[in-house]
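Recap quiz, item 2
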Amino acid sequence: MVGVSEVLNTVQMGLAYMVIALPLTLSYRVTQVINFVHIIFITLGAYTVALLGLIGLTNVWIALGIAFLLGGALAVLDNVAVFEPLWRRGSDVLIIMVASLGLWIFYKYLIYAVLDKLFIILRTNTLSVLVRTEGFPSVTLGAVTIDGYLIDTVVTSVVVTLALYLILMKTRIGKAIRAIADNQTLAEISGIPRGRVLNFMWFLAGGTAAVGGVLWALFQTTVTPEIGDQIILQVFSIAVIGGLYSLTKTALGAFIVSGTENIVIAVLHDTFGLPLSFRPFLVFSVLLIVILVWPPLGAGGGLPYRFRIRPRARR
Amino acid sequence: MALDTKAIGLLILGLIIGAAIGYGATAFTGGGGATTPSGGTETAGPQEQQTVTYKIGFTLPLSGQLSSIGKLWEKVAYMAVDDLNKMMASYHLPYRFEAVVLDDGTTEEKALQNVQTFAQQGIKVVIGPAASSQVKAVKSFADSNHIVIISPSSTAPTLAIPNDYIFRNTGSDALQAKALAALVNHEGIKKVVVFYRDDEYGTAFADFFKKEFEALGGQAILLSYASNLADFASEVASLSSKVQSEGAEAVVLISFDTDGANILSHAKDDPVLSKVRWFSGEGIHGASELLQPSLAEWLDSINFLGTRPVFISNPLYEEFKKKFENLTGTDPPVFSEKLYDAVFLAGWAIVRAGTYDGEAIKNALPEVAKHYYGASGWCILDKNGDRAFQDYSIWTIKQVGGEYKYVDIGTYSGGTLTFTESP
Amino acid sequence: MEFLINFIISWLPIFAIYGILSISLNLEIGYTGMANFGKVAFYAIGAYLSAALTMSVMLSLVGKSVPLYSIEAVQALSTPGTGAIYTHPAAYVGLFVLSLVLAFIVAGVVGYFITYPTLRVGPAFLGITVLAFGEMFRVFMRNYEPLGSTKGLFGLNNPFIWIGNPQLSQGLFALVSLALLLAIYIYAERFVNSPLGRTLRAIKDDEVAALCLGKHVPRVKATVFFIASGMAGVAGVLWTFYQGSVQPDTFVPILTFYVWAMVILGGMGNNLGALLGAAVFTLVDRVLTFAAGMMGPSLIIPPNYLRWMIVGIVIVLVLLFRPEGIRPAKPIKTPAWEAVKEVSEGG
Amino acid sequence: MAEPILEVKDVAKYFGGVRALDGVTLSVQKGGLIGLIGPNGSGKTTLFNVITGFYVPTRGEVWFEGERIDGLNPNEVYLKGIVRTFQIPRLFPSLTVLENVLLTPPNQIGEKPLYAVLRSRWEKQEKELAKKAVKLLRRFGLGRYIHANVSELSAAHIKLLETIRGLMTNAKLYLLDEPAAGVAYDMAKEMFSFVKRLRDEEGLTFFIIEHRLEVLMEFVDYVYVLHNGKLLAEGKPDEVVQNKAVIEAYLGG
């Protein structure tokens, strides 16, 4: 049965997904790299709010700010230390993507190792932290209680999306970012300082993704080091639905996936008795369908057209 | 031939280097070459007698999924070996034991690798691994290489196999399911939804619970959730509609700590789920998340009850608990008394076998267990090498001195339910 | 010496498994430029197929019809001395061989069809498609009761266990694994040092240009995926018989990236490099296990985390500072060279 | 004139609302050296993409040697005997010059997956092809570079190599996309005289997109002019240069 809670969950999950997926699409459009460190931005954001709560700092807005700075800083670090040197050497985008994979694995276990030490220092289980933070209070409308975290999520995601839109569309640096996304060589010829613009873009992308991580933590309420890994395929699915190009379609994709995860599974469960544990299965099916039916042509260095299995040569 | 000779050469070189590194590492492990690879060492102790030191291997989840428990278990392991040695000294027995602890990261592959590493060092008794899936992964190697495995916490009914090298110092889940069913029935509830992890632990537990509960005249509806997710909000939403449509009076939650805490924190805000009774097994017991005031208050208000395997009012357990608290400042986590006793069982079995040989130890272990009473109570093993008798305590969350705490309020022993405090 | 032998016989099969996996990944990424982020799926297919096939046939040989994951099944199969794997040695070894063949074919065919998206999208998307496929397979296996769901399957042992002496049987298995690895290595070397290998490199360099030279790029890619996935299936069979059990959660995505690290370290486009990469990582892993036991609880970073941190940082550092890996890609060796010499000498 | 080898009949290609090609009809005579010109965005490359199978035309037909080829995949078009070169040469950097040439013959035995590992099956063919390739390279003055990496070649040599490797096969029609782009005037002239020599010696047909009209017009014997996806003019070079509409299009574009 699809009830109010499924709908509210869809909204909260979808908004969090949206804030996480938008920067992935943005960074893909500009650099053509599917960035696996995105997972770490999410985890970092989630742990920022969780650990701050653990030491008694329970203001969600402060956590959001710190997460943004941390995520942005990490993204710029990656760009300066790894992506940019590789790009300058003329490496294939695939190679840069694999490097981001390596970074992801490294950071993930670095986080594990740090939490391991914190475990001993703080004497609490840091590998699974219940989020304790405060933003807006919960509101009760008749029989429906709207959780405070949901209100925080709505406010934050609206602000973040608006800010992203304004930066990309109305500022000079935003125009420079779009110019690079549209044509690298042309942008460079026209004197856009690629290095600086890219660093700014990465800061924005990493920071936004970390903010998304905070929102995701608010939704999950429990944070583990696997929190980013567990949703990354969903986030990829969303980005692929957006064709890794359109930010609007990415936002739409966020709600398609979150709707699948909440409402579709509930309907299938009630009508066909599909086990709830098939949820990831369902999401990956969406991903496969999208890739097979509406593939982003030429994306990721592929053939720029559709290879025809049965050529239509007529006589 | 496309294969050049260099390839073979390099391969062989690799083999030799690898073996050399490995060999060097073991030599080092022995600490100054005092250890012969056979595992038994003769050193002149402080006493006049020559003492023999045996190594006991531990493969524990120091990292990964179960690491929050595993880290404390590691302390239990060292504490137990220490206590065992003191006991040996006080009996003037010429045997000493040494713990070799390896981390298996809660993965199957690593558990097997650890047991192999122990085997290479000549260690014949291994305590751990924690999860049933890991025990299965090491089973065939242990059986064919005669390595005795004593798991303190594997409860999967599918591992109840006679005549193998796998021993489990804990009751199979079938026993606990029976206790939990009796508890729910005692509370006068006739219809429940069982909400369980979709892994081996949850599935088996739920199946047994349904069987036992329906034997008592109740009705149990099974509903699984994906345990590999981090987000359970929508699972809880489905649970809510299920409870409402079935008109169930209670939910039985079969979970581990992280997922269970997450589920409860969502359920607290659900209009349906916050009004029904909740019951649980041992998986969630001890999770610090549940003691947070907002959650604990709700759990207290709905009279949340759970079962957990424990030996009740046992002075040895109290002593163990106190010692552990002094050492670490926290309560002993689940299964730590089982782990503690497993070390003593292993030690005495080696002494009884009189030789550091896998088969002899395997044969001695059930005999030793028959006469062993430890922090976890009587450790008698059944024909499958699993703990035959298991008592359970009934736990809840209550305010004690202004703070919420886990409190045991009753026992389930030998088929009868007794409350020491009113629930 | 005893220790050394034990070490080698427990390490060799693991080396063989990862060696096969990294050679197969190298065929895909190193030679053809196809990113496979879901290698683990085909490995899992091989493992599950061999376990299901061997267990069900062995059980029917001893006249038992019980679920594969039940205690009765495990007992009927693996009770020392009286279990089916001890009493029917010929059938057991035969099933091992049959599993190798079938796993190659089944995993290969699945791999062949998985490349369908490459008809349209590039390597990065192929990678993500296969990654999602691997996760789907794992989620499915977690829920598929006849093959044990989360309980997994167990009760097998190495194919020579009936010999009795554990060291001897494990040693034989280690040798068989090594032989398989060598066979696959030789096959891969011959495969890439041929006109087909030339085409593969051309596709890696520029698939549009290769297409314009009449190469049926999607078919060639699918063929390579067939072969590489089949190899991964073979590795999966070895894993089943090595561990004696299969569990769905062994086959997590990070395993794939472990193999990636091996190929990148060893050198993309060099089979020997892939082997070296596999040897280095499996050895480092074992050494870390020893070192951990040596240092005890004082170890600063738990070895399990350290292991993966090394995997990650090696990928990054090698790509940054030595993108060609330990052993750079070799030119293709075909008899064309000899022909050129003949022409030159002839005038 | 001889019979047409390539015929494009009323071909149109729309991308959404954009009419990249809008009803183009033209033909290329066997043994001809035909130019295709037009301002940027006039649809020249789109036409090449339609002919070589990258795009299926929205409307119209493409015929090659009496066979209809529109809708075939690019590899199949190649097998019919049409070789395409790119504006930026697309050689394979991880292969040597010799290997780049050896890649071109279709249906080699050693390319079949089953035979690839059985060296004895393809060794003979491989050696024959290698000998042929070496002769070819020597004939065009690339003998020194047989084992060189492609990156060691000069820009002109790369263009040369890209063109001559088609001679290993049954190539009949060449589609050259701006062969003289990015090279000096002298070099461009040399490039075109080489193309002419190939046409004369080998009887090949060339269909060439070129921006540098000053070079192109010297060599070609017929020119088509595209503008906004439509054929604007055609004729002998000197006629086309005089055409008012063409001049306007170029100035306006």
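The CA atoms of residues 88 and 181 of chain D lie 8 Å apart.
Chain D has ten helices and ten strands.
End of item.
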